[in-house]
Every structure is written in structure tokens, then in C-alpha cells.
Design brief:
By secondary structure, the chain is of the alpha+beta class. The protein has 3 helices and 12 strands. A hairpin with a 2-residue loop joins strand 5 and strand 6. Helix 1 packs across helix 3 and helix 2 packs across helix 3.
């Protein structure tokens, strides 16, 4: 691959020359590269999974960018040479993180983080027998990272299940055992 600078001949040219080279522009630069062809090898399971994930991310990006508010949000995060579509695909690839779960009196405090935005946090209180006693949506705190949920009861030996969801619908489930 070669990057061409200040060459009048190549400034307005793009495309392929036979089966030899491809000329294209990217971020204001003219690039000349060997023409790539399709691989003759059978794709591996990992490659097929990556293709499927990319297809799902692209479908998400196309659908979500029809909403002007979300498109403007993703565009505001784009850097040089990027656009809202690129940011939406990047967001679809990574699930949110649950950094911490704490119980303060009768409030469950969940610290959740995503590279873009956490859409919602659901909290479930399960007793030791596995019966869901209560469930509900947590409320985002002022700091933009902590989510709060007020519980009715905290059964000894029970579990608090926290489900964090981001804009593309990626989910992270984490459990906190009550002592």
C-alpha cells in the first residue's frame, strides 16, 4: 500500500486497474494498493461468527440511525474520518460493564458503565429457593454512572440479579449474594 501526496495524475482517479491495483481516497489521501480477491480457503468458525456479528451490528446501525436524535448522539462522538454509522457499529460490538453492586440500607446501588450509554438497569431480588420476590428498573443517579433501586426486603441467603442493557440491546447479567 502506498500513500500518494501532491500528484496531479492521481488526485481525481479512483477504481481498479485490471486485476493488479486499486486506487482510492480515504481521509483526503490517495492510496494505491494491490487489488484484493476473495479467499479460496473455507472460513473458520471464528470468522463465520465475526461475519454474523458484523451483519447484526450493521443491521442495528441502519435501523437506529433513522432516529435523528440517536443519530445526532452518535455523530457527536465520532472523531476525524468517522461518522454516526461507524459509532453505532462500534457500540453494537461491546456489552456494558457492571463495575460494582452494593447494598446501602434498603437501596441497591449498581455502578454500570458502557463506552457509549447504558440504556437501562433491571434489578431482581431472588430468595434462597430461587423465587423472584421483586423486580424493577433502577433509576440513574446524578453522576451518570450509579443506578439506584429501592428494595422492599433483602432475604438472607438470597441473590440480587442485575441486568444492564445498552442502546444496541447488549446485556450483562451479574449476581450479588446476600449474606
Amino acid at each position: 500500500m502506498a500513500i500518494i501526496k501532491d500528484n496531479v495524475l492521481f488526485q481525481l482517479i479512483s477504481g481498479s486497474l485490471g486485476n493488479q491495483i486499486t486506487i482510492y481516497q480515504r481521509n483526503g489521501q490517495t492510496i494505491v494498493a494491490k487489488k484484493r480477491g476473495r479467499s479460496k480457503k473455507k472460513p473458520t468458525r471464528k470468522q463465520l461468527d465475526a461475519r454474523m456479528m458484523m451483519a447484526e451490528a450493521a443491521a442495528y446501525a441502519k435501523a437506529i440511525l433513522k432516529d435523528p436524535e440517536i443519530k445526532a448522539y452518535y455523530q457527536s462522538l465520532a472523531g476525524p474520518g468517522q461518522n454516526a454509522y461507524n459509532m453505532a457499529i462500534k457500540d453494537a460490538y461491546k456489552a456494558p460493564e457492571v463495575q460494582n453492586i452494593a447494598v446501602v440500607d434498603t437501596t441497591v446501588v449498581v455502578t454500570a458503565k458502557d463506552e457509549f450509554r447504558v440504556a437501562e438497569v433491571e434489578v431482581r431480588v431472588v430468595d434462597s429457593a430461587g423465587v423472584i420476590l421483586e423486580r424493577g428498573k433502577a433509576v440513574l443517579g446524578r453522576n451518570g454512572v450509579d443506578w439506584y433501586y429501592k428494595v422492599g426486603s433483602l432475604p438472607a441467603g438470597g441473590v440480587i440479579c442485575v441486568l444492564v442493557v445498552d442502546l444496541p440491546g447488549n446485556e450483562t447479567l451479574r449476581e450479588f449474594r446476600l449474606e
